[in-house]
Amino acid sequence: MEGVLFDLDGIITDTAKFHFKAWKQLAQDELNITLPASFESQLKGISRMESMKLILKFANLEDNFSEKEVFQLANKKNELYLREINKLTQADILPGIENLLDALAANRILLSIASASKNAPLILEKLGLLNRFDAIANPENVANGKPAPDIFIEAAHQIGLSPEKCVGIEDAPAGVIAIKKAKAVAVGVGDDAELNEADVVVNKTSNLSYLLLVDTYDKKYL
Ligand code: G16
Ligand code: MG
């Protein structure tokens, strides 16, 4: 194992609740609908525009807005979301993540972010983690979102590695599929049954460790 590719939302910090809060408000204010709670997990790892389209489809309003209007709605959601993100501090880093980053750096493992979020640099800055990563893959540079492997391949290339040399960490089923398609080793965080495509699953971030990642990688290749 020479590199680790991190998902952001659900692994480094829990932004899903802020995404959902912003989508819910947008849906209420602009579409006059109430989004069901199930959308919080449904939108995990899905890009901003894809999420917007899923919500319009749910509201049966996909033909009511021009491409430009859809874009403007998604921008409004982002403004609502940024209000929440600006309040993030180091205290919002998920349990065990700082220790994991320390252990990986001590072992000279390269670290890269593979997030669908265009706000990833801002979020990492707010958490005080920006300088702990060697690269952040830019989702604007990849053609297809998760479950396509593109963002994980890009994250590996940004640290000069092929994905086969890397372990990817994800909390969303679409993300785990993306890691496997990229041919990296997949560590899932969350529900075992939901993330059954992963090479190993832990139920919470505090159960992640350098040894778990190395062991999972070595089992695959040694
Ligand atoms: C995250 C979230 C998604 C969000 C996406 C894009 O993905 O899980 O809900 O829609 O980023 O975010 P933004 O609107 O900030 O560009 P990930 O890949 O970090 O789990
Ligand atoms: Mg995630």
From TrEMBL:
Substrate binds at residues 7-9, 23, 43-48, 51, 77, 115-119, 146. Keywords: Magnesium, Metal-binding. It holds the Pfam family Hydrolase. GO terms for biological process: carbohydrate metabolic process. The active site is at residues 7, 9. Mg(2+) binds at residues 7, 9, 170-171. Binds 2 magnesium ions per subunit. Its cofactor is Mg(2+). InterPro entries: B-phosphoglucomutase_hydrolase (IPR010976), Beta-PGM (IPR010972), HAD-like_sf (IPR036412), HAD-SF_hydro_IA (IPR006439), HAD_sf (IPR023214), PGP-like_dom2 (IPR023198). One of its GO terms (molecular function) is magnesium ion binding. Transmembrane segments: none annotated. The keyword Oxidoreductase does not apply. The record marks 115, 146 as: Important for catalytic activity and assists the phosphoryl transfer reaction to Asp8 by balancing charge and orienting the reacting groups. Belongs to the HAD-like hydrolase superfamily. CbbY/CbbZ/Gph/YieH family. This is PgmB protein.
